[in-house]
Amino acid sequence: MQRLYFDHNATSPLRPEARAELERWLDAGLGNPSSVHGSGRRARSVIDEARERVAAALGVREGEVVFTSGGTEAIGLALRGAAAKLAPGTALATTTIEHAAVLEHLRALRDGGHPLLELDVDGEGRLDVERAARACAELGAGLLSVGVANNEIGVVQDLAGLRAALERAGVRPVVHTDAVQALGRLPIDLEQWGAQLATFSAHKVGGPVGVGVLVARGGAALEPVAVGGGQEMGFRAGTESAAAIAAAGVAIELAVAERAAYAERVEGLARRLWAGLEAGLVGARLLGPAFEAPDARPARLPNTVNVLTDQGGDLLLARLDLEGVEASAGSACASGSIEPSHVLLALGLDESGARRGLRLSLGPDTTAHDVEQLVDIVCRTCASLVEKQGTTGGAVGGP
Ligand code: PLP
């Protein structure tokens, strides 16, 4: 059976150029990058070259790029590392819809004595930046973490607006942004976003699993989390995976170079997908902002369609899997559990609604034919569940 892969926000397949780079260096007998002999020096130069590529792609300096084992570790280093430099008891702030990697690191810091403010979002997932800045000023927040784009519903936050609002409110927290889902899909502009710290993950853009990037701009004050051999400018100890880092460098460089054309194409497909589902599923609702943005700023990720239906949830996902469709109910870490999505709860859905989102995330290999087939299969599968459950498929709950 042909598989229809619609889970690129969870992970996107290794792209051929990254695979070629990985194989090239796996077979090259690289040594430990910290060794002074020839094989070690070769490994070091492979990492240096990858750092150059990533820095150029992200518009930062090479010395600002720290490689980690993935997005989660990069986020942990950013948040724990920055918090360790704050005075004890300094407040931290974030939003209620961040990825678990952000929320759980911050909640651990809260348990360690830093008050934590989790800012609400509106029914489409948007943060009110003026309110956020005022709250940060009142609290004297020392660290603020707001993701560029949400992995479940694709909402894009107004980080440039947040930066301006923070300035107006006269507060200067260290700003971290989880840019894992933005990479290769939105323009990356850390300066405009006012972010000193930003985190990325290679496997979301066709790089290998197991390579993350922390950008720490302008000598952002950070305490290392993993200590030992002093690798990665002392920020992240542990022998680097040179071949995987090289492949990640290639994937990130290409994702950024191809972004504009890719985003335009994939957004066209995502719009067709939503139009097909809206026409074929009674009462279906698009979660997150509409495709038609009110201003020039992108309101949503171009590749993400999360649909609320009466039939959504684990049973629908399992049925779709049997039909060859691979999708998700939320973040990959949470799918497989029956927990309601914290993101959908934050939009104001009740517990039942927060279990019924169907996240369909498109990628570079998605075709118009795939989208047509997907629409057909989702509509048929939902209809058969309606028959089985004897439900009417009426309008769904929540705001
Ligand atoms: N942040 C966001 C928004 C994500 O979507 C993910 C992956 O699901 C992560 C962080 C974690 O990245 P990684 O899987 O590389 O640890």
TrEMBL record:
Q: What class of enzyme is it?
A: transferase
GO terms assigned for molecular function: cysteine desulfurase activity; iron-sulfur cluster binding; metal ion binding
Recorded hits in InterPro entries, A to Z, give:
Aminotrans_V_dom (IPR000192), Cysteine_dSase (IPR016454), PyrdxlP-dep_Trfase (IPR015424), PyrdxlP-dep_Trfase_major (IPR015421), PyrdxlP-dep_Trfase_small (IPR015422)
Output the superkingdom of the source species.
Bacteria
Q: Does the keyword Metal-binding apply?
A: yes
Catalytic reactions on record = (sulfur carrier)-H + L-cysteine = (sulfur carrier)-SH + L-alanine
Segments forming domain Aminotransferase class V = 5-374
Name the Enzyme Commission number(s) assigned to this protein.
2.8.1.7
Q: Which cofactor does it need?
A: pyridoxal 5'-phosphate
Q: Name one Pfam family in it.
A: Aminotran_5
Q: Which UniProt keywords apply?
A: Iron, Iron-sulfur, Metal-binding, Pyridoxal phosphate, Transferase
Q: Which family does it belong to?
A: Belongs to the class-V pyridoxal-phosphate-dependent aminotransferase family. NifS/IscS subfamily.
Name of the protein described by the UniProt record: Cysteine desulfurase
User: Lineage of the native species?
Assistant: Bacteria, Pseudomonadati, Planctomycetota, Planctomycetia, Planctomycetia incertae sedis
